[in-house]
Amino acid sequence: TQNFHDIFQSLKLAADVPTQTERVNANLQLQISTLRANVSRLPKPLARMVNAAADEFEGNVAETSIANLNQTLDQTVTRPCEEAVNGRYPFARDSSEDISMADFAKLFAPGGLMDRFFAQNLAPLIDMTGQEWSWKQNARYSKDLAKSALKAFQAAAEIRAAFFPSGGSTPLVSITFTPTSLNSEADSAVLNVDGQTVQSAQAGNAPSIVTWPSGAASGSASLSLIPEMPGRESALKFEGPWALKRLFDKATITGDGASTEARFVIGGRDVAYTIQAGSGANPLVLPALSGFSCPKAF
Questions:
Q1: What is the pLDDT of residue 205?
Q2: CB 274 within 8 A of CB 259
Q3: How far is 208 from 204, CA to CA, in rounded Å?
Q4: pLDDT at position 124, please?
Q5: pLDDT tens digits for 57-105?
Q6: Which domain-ending residue is among 134, 169, 204?
Q7: What dihedral do alpha carbons 200, 182, 202, 273 form, nearest 10°?
Q8: 73 domain residue, yes or no
């Protein structure tokens, strides 16, 4: 009877003082375990009744814990995430409006909204060893959690690794561009990223390292073929913090992982580069970025 009394007091405290729910749930888990341990001493009919009661208590604990988790998620992650992401490039690929680098960092930087919620609430519950994250089967109430929100946190971790490789609070990536081919109708090509240039010629090309984003209030990226040809397009130009990403959306990308090739066709003339990110995953062609959506509920 003492076990039931303890459980009743914990449930009453959780109802009367919602701010104590997380601590109460931890106590309830221990109290329910103690109750189950004492079942073996009881006659079988009574033991079945006690086990059924323990199952119901555990169900109540799981429902309360998940409800609290969802409330915290909505207030601290989902709402600010949707305000920053919805309708903005690169998450809305066709949008002319960019997410600012400040909002991007607030969401995805180490210690940012996604990372902090994950560390404080989810890390012990998740198996991250496989290609796709999953809930640990033996974790507290994990069997009742949905997988959809988990995908958002895995994508956020991949974005963080690609854009914040040094662990800083602002995105900064070193990208090596190596010219590999240039159309015979062009003497040269110039890739310009926030004032950093990569020169392509018919021979003698060397790799160039570009740091991006520049941190400037406004960014720019362009690719120009020389000489200009009358009546034909000779350049691609974009403005804004995501200008380089917008430029590479115009390329045909082959390969995956850290090293990829991008081939541009401008006015019938083509130029190609291999792109290698010093951090590993290439942020310009990152599936997690284009596929990200804010976590909803567990």
A1: 93
A2: yes
A3: 13
A4: 78
A5: 555 555 556 777 888 899 999 999 999 999 999 999 999 999 999 999 9
A6: 169
A7: 40
A8: no
Cβ-contact 99, 93 below 8 angstroms:
no
pLDDT at 18: 46
Q: Let me know if residue 79 belongs to a domain.
A: no
Tokens of 281: 């995953």
Cβ-contact 149, 155 below 8 angstroms: no
Count: domains in the chain: 3
Are 233 and 265 within one domain?
yes
Q: Do 140 and 59 contact (CB within 8 A), yes or no?
A: no
Closest CA to 13 of 4, 22, 218: 22
How many angstroms separate the CA atoms of 193 and 198, rounded? 8
Please tell me the distance from the alpha carbon of residue 208 to that of residue 106, in angstroms, as a whole number: 30
Domain extent, residue 257, equals 173-278
Asked if residue 291 belongs to a domain, the reply is: no
> CB atoms < 10 A from the CB of 106, how many?
17
Q: Give the predicted TM-score (pTM) of the model.
A: 0.79
User: Which positions of the chain have pLDDT values less than 50?
Assistant: 17-19
Is there a single domain that holds both residue 156 and residue 236? no
User: How confident is the model over 119-147, as pLDDT tens digits?
Assistant: 988 887 788 998 999 887 765 555 557 78
Residue-level pLDDT at 138: 64
152 shares its domain with 224: no
Token pair 């018919």 in the structure block, residue: 202
- Phi, psi of 295, rounded to the nearest 5 degrees: -65, 140
